[in-house]
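FAQ

Q: What does a record look like?
A: Structure on top, sequence underneath. For example:
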């Protein structure tokens, strides 16, 4: 089993006297910048001219410069603009990278698929929080941590790992635990996970379930509650205690039905589809497709996004969430009751 780094493994001198340029002030950027600054690290936020994020960064008390200026004064450049714009931002800042500086990422896509080719004399590292940025910030403010992955792609100084760990400490991740991986493993497993299970797989499963019920005469409202709304309760149990806790919490009927029918639904064919999706991630086919799609102005992306928004389940859900009270109530800390 891999070691999990925590606060006792950190030497803060690797980051404390450095200047960190955080490029981008979106989901991850605002969290890293504020957490590092609150941890006593000198932070400058790099934003393009006319950036809509500028006022937020300034209101949070941070210094803002252009990406190029920020990179010029920084020892560590944390690249937290969207993955699709990172190559062009990198082009602008590359001349500002001195020997011994660090290029820091939160996802390995552009390095792993060769869209960014860093100079040989800089360290290239990754601290990837396993959570959206707003939680990275919220956890930090609550004296809690967010788990993260650490990877070193290039170690020019010999200090790359120690510095990355100190960066992870600065954004609060060592309070929870930091697991070491590689750019390749993080990139491929992240893409596979979001495609096959988390984002792609689960929405497809929900839509197919909804359509099966509605096509057979069940009411859309019932179908929505059954296959989408209740999913959260099930996932919360899995998150807390794995599949075992979920099975323990549902009725014996749900457990027997699920155990006998689950593998009939998501069967060997689906498993083979997963192997194909993984292969397209591994051989770079998915990356090439997504890069080309961006270069073409995202026609297919926009069309698919629109079709997804037009699915009946979206309108049903919007209406129900407006009629029932749960959606805008703050989350209640109690054991959910589940009857699946
Ligand atoms: P966001 O989409 O939230 O980044 C938006 C920020 O980038 C804004 O400040 C925006 O400024 C700036 N930006 C957008 N386009 C440009 C451009 N062309 N030039 C300069 N700045 C630009 O990014 P995320 O935080 O989602 O992702 C950042 C990195 O973190 C990615 O590598 C991602 O994979 C990784 N990551 C993201 C997670 C998440 O939950 N979101 C989780 C873990 C990793 P403006 O106002 O000027 O548009
Ligand atoms: Mg992910
Ligand atoms: Mg991802």
């Amino acid at each position: 089993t891999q070691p999990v780094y925590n606060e006792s493994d950190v030497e803060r001198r690797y980051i404390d006297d450095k200047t960190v340029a955080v490029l981008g002030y979106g989901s991850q950027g605002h969290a890293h910048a504020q957490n590092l600054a609150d941890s006593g690290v000198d932070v400058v936020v790099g934003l393009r001219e006319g950036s809509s994020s500028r006022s937020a960064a300034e209101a949070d008390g941070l210094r803002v410069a252009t990406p190029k200026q920020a990179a010029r004064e920084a020892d560590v450049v944390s690249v937290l603009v969207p993955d699709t714009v990172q190559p062009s931002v990198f082009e602008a800042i590359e001349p500002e990278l001195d020997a011994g500086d660090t290029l820091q990422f939160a996802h390995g896509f552009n390095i792993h698929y060769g869209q960014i080719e860093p100079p040989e004399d800089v360290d290239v590292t990754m601290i990837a929080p396993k959570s959206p940025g707003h939680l990275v910030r919220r956890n930090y403010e609550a004296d809690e941590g967010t788990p993260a992955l650490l990877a070193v792609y290039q170690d020019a100084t010999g200090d790359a790992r120690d510095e990355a760990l100190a960066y992870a400490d600065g954004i609060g991740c060592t309070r929870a635990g930091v697991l070491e991986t590689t750019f390749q493993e993080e990139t491929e497993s992240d893409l596979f996970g979001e495609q096959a299970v988390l984002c792609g797989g689960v929405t497809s499963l929900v839509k197919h379930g909804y359509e099966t019920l509605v096509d057979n005469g069940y009411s859309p409202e019932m179908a929505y509650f059954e296959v989408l709304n209740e999913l959260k309760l099930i996932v919360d149990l899995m998150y807390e205690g794995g599949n075992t806790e979920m099975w323990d919490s549902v009725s014996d009927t749900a457990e027997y039905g699920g155990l006998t029918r689950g593998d009939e639904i998501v069967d060997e064919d689906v498993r083979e589809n997963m192997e194909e999706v993984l292969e397209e991630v591994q051989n770079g086919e998915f990356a090439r497709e997504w890069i080309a799609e961006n270069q073409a102005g995202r026609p297919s992306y926009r069309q698919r996004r629109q079709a997804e928004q037009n699915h009946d389940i979206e309108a049903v859900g919007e209406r129900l969430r407006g009629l029932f009270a749960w959606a805008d109530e703050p989350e209640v800390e109690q054991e959910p009751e589940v009857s699946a």
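Q: Is there anything notable about this one?
A: Residues 190, 194 surround magnesium ion (ligand 3) (CB under 6 Å).
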